Amino acid sequence: MSVTTIAVIGGTGPQGRGLAYRLARAGHSIVLGSRDASRASAAAVELGHELEIGSVELRRVAGNVTGASNLDAAASAPVVLLAVPYDGHTELVSSLAAALAGKIVISCVNPLGFDKQGPFGLDVPAGSAAEEAASLAGGATVVGAFHHLSAPLLLDQDADLSHEDVLVCGDDREAKELVMGLAADVTGGRGVDAGRLRLARQLEPLTAVLISVNKRYKTRSGVSITGLTQASHERVPA
Amino acid sequence: MSVTTIAVIGGTGPQGRGLAYRLARAGHSIVLGSRDASRASAAAVELGHELEIGSVELRRVAGNVTGASNLDAAASAPVVLLAVPYDGHTELVSSLAAALAGKIVISCVNPLGFDKQGPFGLDVPAGSAAEEAASLAGGATVVGAFHHLSAPLLLDQDADLSHEDVLVCGDDREAKELVMGLAADVTGGRGVDAGRLRLARQLEPLTAVLISVNKRYKTRSGVSITGLTQASHERVPA
């Protein structure tokens, strides 16, 4: 694993904090972004404390965590994780577009709605939030991943996530490789190459099914792909 | 398990034959449907031979398999499985609507397109093929299931499918229970209550992701839901 700096846009929300925690534990340096830089800094301090609760070994390898405004966070890192609600996504990504140019942008955004029948996938004009980000931030290389991991489990230092598959979609092979590596860092398991970026249309709203399962079975569900015995590097070249 | 008669519309296609084989093995009586009744009868004879290749124990419990036109098949059974391509789905279900009234209709239809970028989910005016069937056959109770099982594995008598989860969606609890039982019959594993019928919008095109994974990893992939330690009957009442 090579260690990098990752900006987590929406880093004070549960999904952002959870992914930041796991990535920092794996040694990456994290810049938590928030609309309010002081909130981001407070969240960074809190996350730093949580890392210190871990074992001595963990504290030794953990990357540092700082906070900044979303824009400063995006500007400060070669890899930027969008972990924001879909509501406001268009405006946010537009405002960050210049800072995202030339970077790898990971979208775990799930455009979901809820009504009395439960959760459902929203209609997204671009097809998916990941494609919308790619369209708005034309200079960035967008990869979709981390849609299905439970935030409370990410933040539970004792939770073993190695059986969860992180489905990774994108059109750039190198960027996808990097994100699959980060997926392994987050879960201790594997990233799975799920195909082209447009398949984010399937990955994002699948979360509505998982939320529905969670409610019915009182659990925190996730996804595993059956039939994969090979390690990710044994994929057939695309 | 209670044994029933199941009509498989599109029963000469790979998915239909595969599901029919597993359901017959579990003791259900199968009526394979096809546009051409004589083709359906020939396929039924062939499937009967495949069942006879199995163990003595298997031959003893296997249900009988017959063939008929799609319309006669639909009219002959209390449970009707739609295992047809999405192309022509609207016309077919319309033509069967009267015969489907009062029945449980299971849709495993996957509306997919393919281009040089690979597979993708088609836009379906009703949201999903399952919802389209429910709309066209207003007197039927439609359940979505069996979207993600590999046809070659279904037809491979030695393939253990017990680790594959069958995601089942529908708005009628009793019908869903019945289909979850059939799912267990097919795989030897479990059906998972995936929520309301409209979530077929997520289940159907997820198959595009699995096909993409199959290509990249040279495998026959499927889906398993993590975080479910409870048996299906321990669900929280909806």
Describe this structure in words.
The structure is a homodimer of 238-residue chains. Chain A is of the alpha/beta class. Chain A has one domain: Rossmann fold (3-Layer(aba) Sandwich), CATH 3.40.50. In chain A, 42% of the residues lie in helices and 22% in strands. The first copy, chain A, has helices spanning 14-25, 37-53, 56-61, 70-76, 89-100, 129-136, 151-155, 173-187, 200-217; strands spanning 5-9, 29-34, 65-69, 79-82, 104-107, 112-115, 118-121, 141-144, 165-170, 190-195, 222-226. In chain A, the strands form two sheets. In chain A, strands 3-2-1-4-5-8-9-10 form an eight-stranded mixed β-sheet, with helices on both faces. In chain A, strand 9 (165-170), helix 8 (173-187) and strand 10 form a beta-alpha-beta unit. Chain A is globular and about 45 Å long. Chains A and B meet through strand 7, strand 10, helix 9 and strand 11 of A and strand 7, strand 10, helix 9 and strand 11 of B. Strand 11 of chain A pairs antiparallel with strand 11 of chain B.
Briefly, what is this?
Two copies of one chain form a homodimer. Chain A has helices spanning 14-25, 37-53, 56-61, 70-76, 89-100, 129-136, 151-155, 173-187, 200-217, and strands at 5-9, 29-34, 65-69, 79-82, 104-107, 112-115, 118-121, 141-144, 165-170, 190-195, 222-226.
Quaternary: homodimer
Mean pLDDT of chain A comes to 94
**Within the CATH hierarchy, at the fold level, what is the topology of chain A?**
Rossmann fold
- Any idea what the shape of chain A is? globular
**Terminal-residue CA separation of chain A:** 23 Å
- In the predicted model, the low-confidence regions of chain A spanning at least 5 consecutive residues are none
- Helix amount of chain A, in percent? 40-55%
Whole-number radius of gyration of chain A?
A: 17 Å
How would you spell out the order of helices and strands of chain A?
EHEHHEHEHEEEHEHEHEHE
Q: State the domain count of chain A.
A: 1
Largest interface, by Cβ-Cβ below 8 angstroms: which chains and how many residues each? A-B, 48 and 48 residues
Q: Numbering strands along the chain, what is their spatial order in the largest sheet of chain A?
A: 3-2-1-4-5-8-9-10
What amount of the residues of chain A lies in strands?
Answer: 15-25%
Specify the biggest β-sheet of chain A. Answer: 8 strands, mixed
Structural class of chain A: alpha/beta
CATH evolutionary superfamily of chain A: NAD(P)-binding Rossmann-like Domain
